[in-house]
Amino acid sequence: MTWGVRGLMVRFGEHLALAGVSLDAPAGRVTGVVGGDGAGKTTLLRCLVGAVAPGWGEVRRPESRRIGYLSSTSGTYPDLSVEENLAFAATAYGVPPVEARARAAEYLERTGLASARDRLTGHLSGGMRQKLGVIRAMVHRPELLVLDEPTTGIDPVSRADLWWLIARAAAEGAAVVLATAYLDEAERASWLLALDEGHALAEGTPDEIAAAVPGTIRTSTERPSGDASRRSWRRGARWRTWTPGAAGSVAPQADVVRPDLHDAVTVAALARELAVTAAGGGAA
Amino acid sequence: MTALAETVGVLRRFGPLVAVDDVHLRVDGGEVVGLLGANGAGKTTLIRILLGLLPPTDGLVRLFGLEPSRETRRRIGYVPQGLGLYDDLTPDENLAFAHAVFGGERGTLPQAIRPLAGVLVGRLSLGVQRRVAFAQALAHRPELLVLDEPTSGVDPLARARLWETIRETADDGAGVLVTTHHMDEAEECDRLVVMADGRVVADGTVAEIVGDTRVAVVRTDEWERAFAALETAGMSAALVGRTLRVPRVAPAAVEGALGDVPARVDEAAATLEERFLELTLSGGRGGAAA
Amino acid sequence: MWAMIVKEFRQLRRDRRTLAMMIVLPILMLVVFGYAASFDVMTIPVRVMGPAAERLAAALPAPFEVEEVDAAAGREQAEMALRDGEVPVVFLTSASGATVLLDGSQLFIATSTKGALSTLAGRAPAGLTVDVEVLFNPDLETSAIMVPGLAAMILLFVGTVITSLGVVRERQAGTLEQLAVMPLRPTDVFLGKIAPYFVVAAVDMVVVIVAGTWLFDVPFRGSVSILAIGALLFLFVTLGIGVLISSVSENQGQAIQLALMTLLPQVMLSGLIFPLSSMPAGVRWIGYVLPLTYFVEIARGVMLRGAPITALWQSYAYLAIIGAVVFGLATLRFRRSLAPARARRHRAPEPELEGSAP
């Protein structure tokens, strides 16, 4: 079963949150939505789980009992213990207590939370709280698991544990949709949708997106001058400059590099920015 | 040359808990040093010691060759994770406040965000908020800049722009210390210091730290079965796209664990993140108790 | 330091709720202590009954104000009038003199009446005996009227303050959205959230009343079920207000500010502490609008006077109507916060904007 959205248009008052966005989320796969603050990731996910009714477009999702959702603001009650938070979720979703306890025990154990069972969630570190949030969202074996920026600000060890939970959910057959602002994380998804200000910037597997960069990317030690400086950005100690053109038109040379996902997303955002200014003034 | 910030053999105890243990850290002018560590690794405590907010139990802390004091605080620019801005004031008002406190020059906002100078900070997007926070920290021309997770949650283009500002500051001679959880950001630094369990477990460039660590990569159509098989064998597999990466295990052992699941097992260079996890976990899992 | 001062003022200027409190509170205090806070009753409505009623009514000076004269009525009717709260003082004339029956549940009117009577005592024609009898609270104890008042306050406090804190906690923690997406019906969430506060308020009230009757010998003459119905209606009002407050507050701090702003006027102007009859008409009408006024009436009437429901029907009716409106509104708003956010509807997809994906 493939869940997802098609042609989603969402406008709140004057603000266009999503402009014709589509996404497929097949079972057993991790689908990523990547973009910065205000790109529309949260709105897309909220449409997917039914928290927002779009102005136009189609949403395919299972009944709310078969959905697991972790919002970016919070997923757990700070004044309940780890155990109590999970118990609330299990009861609300109608999971038989024995099964709920077994699944919870396994996940807590595997992510290093077992010793914190009785601790108040508010007293946990950010990483542990997020792990608990994901466990809470998947304790009822949902068909669709939607996670909004679960690893933002989380330390790498907790992030690794969180990804184990994600892999486990996918291995159990769930369609996992993950929103992230981090590209190295986006690279772990099997399919990616990059958003920028409500528009689809690029989509495909991470490799496909990287290969589809239109034009060439050159590196240099100094920032280029003139017109090219508007198409440059810094990466580490060197500068990268993008020249529009056909994808892969220039073979890798001394200063030409093969684009990666990072480059692809940066180039797509640059292209939008330059086209918008060329059209005479910014949009939105 | 006097280091801008230096700790020598710094130890910090909280009762029976050792938060920072025998740490040598040095930040010189013109360089960007990244501090990488899990929760509970001691990064925050170390930063607080460096900023003069906390005295070490043992060891030396020197800022600009001196003991930390109110004077040294004037020469430091600090952007905490929470940005340190007042949500219910405008950027101009925030800058005015900082100017009144630090003296020196009044900060100026970058050209691109100047039109937003009169909008309440709470209404601005995260990327713009960060740039305001930077402008505020740089206003009094600090010699040392300390940034806590400077680009968390920001899109790649905005991150690149923020890092341009950081780089320019370093090029002007300031020293920059960045704490981060984030591999993308860590790779932007000149040098990395990796902490685990209060100790420094690695110090050098990204390439030096990763060295020639390798991981086993499993390519298969039946990744769910492969995942389950590896789990049963007690091997920790990480899902990346459609492959499974297994660190710290030889490819032959992985093949054995997979049994009759059809797959191809290769070796590949480890990523910084994988190497970091290896360093952290071997340094003890004390961080998980935080 | 100057920098801090400037900054604080700038932030204060934008904090509308605190500003409102800074203005509203002093005005409230002014009104209360200038006009409302008085224990002296200005006019005392009385009924005169018995054979010599006409003559006595004509002769009664201020502060007594004769409402009704009924020569045919006797003791029984007098007691019923007092019990039903129709009037606080009845002059019952007989051949030998007059008995003044006072409603002890209206403490301040009773004491004021006693005071007025003693000043008039010297002017009574000789040979006329005037007895004073205080019904329902013969020793004129303050605790007798305070305990029912306290019961009312408990319901008010738990209903508005505590409930609003509890409900806003959800919004503050950001878990409201989570709930909206779970397979829970909005009714489940709403009732599930306020049920504990309902129970706590009810238990608290029972404890206060029981303690009052045991420890302070406060009487309980009326029917428990009548009081319970009144309490139920009042709870609908207070819980509704509590939920409404939480629906316009983003965090517990704001909720408390708003809750206190609704609590304070009610405590001051509802007749709980300062009797309504001692307030000038201009201020008294505020009391007639406040829900607390009516439940205090019910509590005192049922507990001290044993009044039947027919006597207090106006209070019940008022509470029922206000309760329906407020609770209904609260339900609607709460449901709306759980329902999917609605984006503007479109008839057809918009044309692709320039500068989209390369």
Q: How would you describe the overall organization of this protein?
A:
With 284 residues, chain A is an alpha/beta fold. Chain A folds into 2 domains: 2-203, Rossmann fold (3-Layer(aba) Sandwich); 207-278, no CATH class. Helix content of chain A is 32%, strand content 30%. Chain A has helices spanning 41-49, 82-92, 97-110, 126-138, 156-171, 183-186, 206-211, 261-278, and strands at residues 2-12, 15-26, 30-34, 52-53, 56-60, 67-70, 144-148, 175-180, 191-196, 199-204, 214-220, 232-235, 238-247, 256-257. The longest helix of chain A is centred in the last third of the chain and has 18 residues, at 261-278. Chain A starts with a strand and ends in a 6-residue tail after the last helix. The longest helix of chain B is centred in the middle third of the chain and has 16 residues, at 156-171. Chain B is globular, with a radius of gyration of 22 Å. Mean pLDDT of chain B is 85; it is low at 284-290. Chain B contains 10 helices and 13 strands. In chain B, strand 1 (5-14) and strand 2 (17-27) form a beta hairpin. With 290 residues, chain B is of the alpha/beta class. By secondary structure, chain C is of the alpha/beta class. Chain C is built from 13 helices and 6 strands. In chain C, strands 2-1-3-4-5 form a 5-stranded mixed sheet, sandwiched between helices. In chain C, helix 6 (142-173) packs antiparallel against helix 8 and helix 12 packs across helix 13. The radius of gyration of chain C is 27 Å and the shape is elongated. The model of chain C is unreliable at 352-358 (pLDDT under 50). The chains are: A alpha/beta (284), B alpha/beta (290), C alpha/beta (358). Chains A and B meet through helix 4, helix 5, strand 12 and helix 8 of A and helix 5, helix 8, strand 11 and helix 10 of B.
Instruction: Briefly note the structural class of the backbone of chain B.
Output: alpha/beta
The secondary structure category of chain C is alpha/beta
Counting copies of identical and different chains, the oligomeric state is heterotrimer
Global shape of chain C: elongated
Q: Which consecutive residue ranges of chain C, at least 5 long each, have pLDDT under 50?
A: 352-358
Q: Total domains of chain C, how many?
A: 2
On the 0 to 100 scale, the average pLDDT of chain C is: 85
Q: Count the E strands of chain B.
A: 13
**Biggest sheet: strand arrangement of chain C:** 2-1-3-4-5
User: Biggest β-sheet of chain B: count, sense, barrel?
Assistant: 6 strands, mixed
> Count of DSSP E strands of chain C?
6
Helix content of chain B: 25-40%
Which H/E pattern describes the elements of chain B? EEEHEHEHHEHEHEEHEHEEHEH
pLDDT below 50 for ≥5 consecutive residues: which ranges of chain B? 284-290
Distance between the termini of chain C: 54 Å
- Helix count of chain B equals 10
